[in-house]
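Data deposition worksheet. Section B asks for the primary sequence of the deposited chain exactly as it was used as input, without tags or linkers unless they were present during the calculation. Section C holds the resulting structure in token form. Section D is free text for depositor observations; keep each observation to a single sentence. Incomplete worksheets are returned to the depositor.
Section A, Depositor: J.P.
Section B:
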Amino acid sequence: MRIAPNNSGLGARILDLDLLKPLSPADFRDVLRALGQYGVLCFPQQDLDAAQLADYGKRFGSLEVNVANMFFAPGFPEVMILSNKRDAEGKPIGLNDAGQGWHTDMSYSHDIALANVLHAKEVPLRDGRPLGDTQFRNQHAAYDDLPAEVKERLEGKVAIHDFQKFWDMMRIRPGSIRPPLTDAQRAKKPPVRQPIFRDHPITGKRVLYCNPGYAMHIEGMEKDESDAMLDYLFRHQTQAKYLHSHAWTPGDVLMWDNIGTTHNAMADYGPDEPRFILRVQVMASLDYAALAA
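Section C:
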């Protein structure tokens, strides 16, 4: 196994590792450490089915079954299908995740996620160029670069994160097939309190854990003050130096840190440019500091 970091400081390629085979204890530790250090890991030239992808994800923690998941691999509700393809009757076969806007999965939940693991089976191409990049921003670096007075002002503060904010934002996008959340779904994911700064479970370092997809307001602040501070934090994250964009190739397994990064799926492909990706989400359910030691 070899680790080839990207020049941007965010992202690395993990080479000479076959994910069809169980990870050795040493390889597991090295992958976990790399996830904390580089944030986004690409394992190229893999060929996993839904069961095998789930088995890999489970090595790092329990797998989430999404409260609103409409599309999953048969027999595997924890394996979501992300796709713009349709069946013979014209019905969607997957959730089209493109153009979601910047967010951090599961920040709307009391139990947060460690990582996403996506496996590309089909990637849209135009003139030989892959489309549908997934973009990332480095929240370790974003925290480090905050002015001291902002860190002091926000230390110990929490923001309210709400699943419905993101869901409703996606429903109004052109071509969306998302229905309104049911009362039962809403009850399963009520608004939650999340620390604006938190210690990363692998690195132990501070990260900025506040994203525009789900964060609603800062507890204890008047609305105008909270809106201004959230706007500042979200604009701070947009600096080019924090950005890494992954161009997909069929066979890629992409694993990213959901605590130390935010992400966004590019919507630059059309309905006649097929995309098909399998996805699992790993919850932060283990003692990662001990496992990475």
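Section D:
The longest strand covers residues 113-122.
The mean pLDDT is 93.
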